[in-house]
Amino acid sequence: MSTLFLTEPEVERLLSFPQAIEAVEEAFRALGRGAAQNVPRHRARAPGTVLHMMGASAAYLGFSAWKCYFTTAQGAVFHLGLYEHATGRLVALMQANRLGQVRTGATSAVAARWLAPPGASKLGLFGSGFQARGQLEALAQVLPLKQVFVYSRDPQRRAQFAQEMSQRLPLEVTPVDRPQEAAEELPVVITATTSREPVLDGRWLAPGALVIAVGSNWWHKAELDLTTIRRAHPIVCDDVDCCRLEAGDFRQALEHGVFDWSEAISLAEVVCQRRSGRTDSSDVVLFKSVGMALEDVAVAVRVYQQALQQGLGTPLPLDPRQ
């Protein structure tokens, strides 16, 4: 068999948020029982460029994968290579921008299932870009959302985002002019921005709120202020080792001695019910996500299997044994 090449439109056609959420939750459960292994992201830099590399093995699925993406001033290009354990073959090569958006949203949805206050029908969203869209689409699958309040720095972009998402989802999405309106008295608050400086002030958060922070995966960038970290209990990471390398949201708290990595717990521990995600209804809970290759593997396997069933993709003669 040849390696199957899947384009962005084909991946988008084959991938839905419900199946991605199911796949990602299964992946965290497998990680918790030792049936999967994740390798944190590494980066190689050259003037004006960064090569980002990450990988994971999913023994419970019988597949491993790498994901690489290359960023320049012109944007980013994403690819994923999927290997089958039984044969040792590179069975699929796929473009992975949409896949990354969906798996990031799916991870937040899994966290919300386990950590959000019961019956959360309102949500605040910081950001109106590509990842913010994926976050909202995913959270709408697992929470009984009715109202969303979105803030971003560009009034035109946030208004356009609100109109687009109100049409796409059965939700009332409202653009707000002040950032605190996307946080005050809301049970769930998401930060999905490209900001280098905090966009969320912890004083705005209601007791019992869940904060989902997904925008920063660089040590020099932070969406959350010191007060947010100080108020949060518990602090849940998609992966503590990955966050140690990349979660700049914690840098100031570490420097001020108000947070220690021993306090952080992993989403896998919560999903496997070894650690409690919320001990008191008034707790402000923080979920910090920097992105894991295991999430990509879990979702890519679903895409590949459906591509075979539906006859999609282009065969590439990449197997040297043929």
Please describe the topology of this protein.
Blueprint lengths: L2 E4 L1 H7 L2 H16 L3 E11 L2 E10 L4 E10 L2 E10 L5 E6 L1 H19 L6 E5 L3 H13 L4 E5 L3 H14 L3 E4 L12 E4 L18 E4 L12 H6 E6 L2 H7 L4 H5 L8 E3 H5 L12 E5 L4 H18 L3 E3 L6
Parallel strand pairs: 1-6, 7-8, 7-10, 8-9, 10-11, 11-14, 12-13, 12-14
Antiparallel strand pairs: 1-15, 2-3, 3-4, 4-5, 5-6
In short:
With 322 residues, the protein is α/β, with parallel strands linked by helices. The chain has ten helices and 15 strands.
Record keyword descriptors for this entry.
single chain; 322 residues; alpha/beta; Rossmann fold
Explained architecture:
This protein is α/β, with parallel strands linked by helices and 322 residues long. It has 2 domains: 3-100 and 294-316, ornithine cyclodeaminase, domain 1 (2-Layer Sandwich); 104-291, NAD(P)-binding Rossmann-like Domain (Rossmann fold). It has 10 helices and 15 strands. An 8-stranded parallel β-sheet has the order 9-8-7-10-11-14-12-13. Strands 2-3-4-5-6-1-15 form a 7-stranded mixed β-sheet. The N and C termini lie close together (8 Å). The model has no long low-confidence stretch (mean pLDDT 95).
Tell me the quaternary state: single chain
The class by helix and strand makeup works out as alpha/beta
Distance between the termini: 8 Å
At CATH's second level, what is the architecture of the largest domain?
3-Layer(aba) Sandwich
Briefly note the CATH topology name of the largest domain.
Answer: Rossmann fold
In the predicted model, the low-confidence regions spanning at least 5 consecutive residues are none
Average pLDDT for all residues: 95
Please tally the helical runs, counting DSSP H or I stretches of 4 or more residues. Answer: 10
Number of domains: 2
